[in-house]
Design goal:
This protein is mainly alpha-helical and 369 residues long. The chain contains 14 helices and two strands.
C-alpha cells in the first residue's frame, strides 16, 4: 500500500508540473515529501508488526511519566511556552502520552489495572492547562470512549444510548464553541484592534479559497505546493494560486506576510481535488473498519485509543496542520501499530472474527478489578 500511495503522490507531482504552473518543481518536490510522510509512518508501523514485551511496556510507561512530570513542572514554573514553543503543544503532548500509556498498560487480554487507568486519565488531564478548545473536545471524547461508550450500541440502539452519544457530541461542541465562533462565524466582527480582525479572517479565507480552487480544478485539484501548505508559502516558494483567487492581498496570506498560509489542514485538500478527497476519506474509512476488529479480539480499550487517534487528527485538522507534523506522525504510528496484528490474516480469518461477539459487552468491563 505504501507503493500505491507513493504512486498516487507521484502522479499528482507530475500533474502539478506538466498541466499546472502554480509553483516550481522544487516546491512541488518539497510538498511531495511532506504529503507522503504521514502515510510512511502508518505503513511502516503497520508492516513491522511491532510486539511490545514486558521491558518495552515498562520503559514506555516511564517515558510517559517523565513527559507528565516535565509538563507539570513547566505549568508550575510558568515555562510552558518556553519549553513547548506554544501552549497548544502541551495539549497534544498530553493526549499522545495518554494514548501511549494506555497501550503500554494494556494486557494481552485487553484489560488494564485501575491504577494504570487512573494514571492515564491524570496524564490526559494535564492537557487542560493548554486552554485550547480543540483539546477540550478531545478530552471529552476520550472520557466518553473510556467510560461511557458501549461496544455494539449501534447494532442495538436504545434511547439512552442515543441520548448519551448526542450529549457527548453537544458537550464537545460546547467546549469547542469559542474556537468555532472565533474563526468561522463572527470572523472578528467584535475585534477592537484592526490586527485582530485581520488575523481572524485569514483562516476563513483559506476555507473560502479551498472552495474557489475546487471550482476551478474540481477533479484533480490545484496540484502540489499550490495552496495552504508550507511549500506554497514564501518559506519555500510563494504559490501563484493565491493571486489567481485573490488571496494575495489578505493579511497573513500575502507574499509580504504569509504566516497563516499553513494554518489548517483541510484547505490543503484543494490540491488533490474531489478524487483526492474521496481517497483521503476512503483511507480513514478503511482504518475505522479495521479498528472494529479490536472490539472482537481485545475489547474496547485499544479500540478507544485508535478512535482517539482519528479524533485528534480530525479535530486538529480544522485549525492546524497536525496531520503533517510530529503529533500527526505519532497518531499514524499508533494506528499502524494497532492494525498490524490483523495484517497477515486471511479474509476467512477476518470474517470469523467479525462473526464472533464483542469481548466487552459493558462500558467498564476492560478494567481489571
Amino acid at each position: 500500500m505504501l507503493w500505491v500511495v507513493a504512486f498516487i503522490m507521484a502522479f499528482y507531482a507530475i500533474y502539478s508540473m506538466i498541466f499546472l504552473s502554480y509553483n516550481t518543481p522544487i516546491a512541488i518536490a518539497h510538498d511531495y515529501i511532506t504529503q507522503m510522510k504521514p502515510f510512511c509512518y502508518f505503513y511502516v508501523s503497520y508492516a513491522v508488526v511491532p510486539h511490545l514485551n514486558t521491558f518495552v511496556r515498562r520503559t514506555l510507561r516511564k517515558i510517559c511519566l517523565l513527559n507528565a512530570f516535565v509538563s507539570i513542572l513547566c505549568i508550575i514554573t510558568g515555562q510552558v511556552e518556553t519549553v513547548f514553543s506554544h501552549v497548544t503543544y502541551l495539549g497534544l503532548v498530553s493526549v499522545l502520552t495518554f494514548m501511549v500509556y494506555l497501550i503500554a498498560s494494556t494486557e494481552e487480554n485487553g484489560n488494564i489495572s485501575q491504577k494504570n487507568l487512573i494514571v492515564a486519565v491524570l496524564i490526559l488531564t494535564i492537557g487542560l492547562f493548554c486552554t485550547r478548545s480543540k483539546f477540550y473536545g478531545e478530552y471529552v471524547m476520550a472520557l466518553y470512549m473510556l467510560f461511557v461508550y458501549i461496544p455494539g450500541f449501534s447494532k442495538k440502539i436504545k434511547p439512552k444510548h442515543i441520548c448519551t452519544f448526542v450529549a457527548a457530541v453537544i458537550l464537545v461542541l460546547i467546549v469547542s464553541w469559542n474556537k468555532i465562533e472565533f474563526y468561522f462565524i463572527t470572523a472578528g466582527s467584535d475585534a477592537i484592534m484592526s490586527e485582530d480582525l485581520l488575523m481572524q479572517m485569514a483562516r476563513p479565507m483559506l476555507y473560502g479559497g479551498m472552495i474557489a480552487l475546487l471550482l476551478m480544478h474540481p477533479l484533480l485539484g490545484s496540484g502540489l505546493a499550490s495552496f495552504a501548505t508550507n511549500a506554497s508559502s514564501s518559506a519555500v516558494n510563494y504559490s501563484e494560486a493565491y493571486s489567481a483567487i485573490g488571496l494575495d492581498i489578505v493579511w497573513g496570506l500575502s507574499p509580504d506576510y504569509d504566516a497563516f498560509i499553513c494554518d489548517a489542514y483541510y484547505p490543503s485538500l484543494a490540491q488533490f481535488g474531489i478524487i483526492g478527497i474521496i481517497l483521503y476519506i476512503a483511507f480513514f474509512v478503511w482504518i475505522y473498519k479495521r479498528l472494529g476488529l479490536l472490539l472482537y479480539k481485545q475489547g474496547k480499550l485499544l479500540y478507544s485509543v485508535g478512535i482517539m487517534s482519528i479524533v485528534v487528527l480530525m479535530i486538529e485538522g480544522i485549525a492546524a496542520t497536525t496531520f503533517n507534523q510530529p503529533a500527526g506522525a505519532m497518531c499514524m504510528m499508533i494506528l499502524g501499530f494497532l492494525l498490524s496484528q490483523f495484517k497477515n490474516m486471511s479474509k476467512i480469518e477476518l470474517r470469523e472474527i467479525r462473526q464472533g461477539d464483542y469481548k466487552d459487552k459493558k462500558a467498564l468491563d476492560f478494567i481489571k478489578k
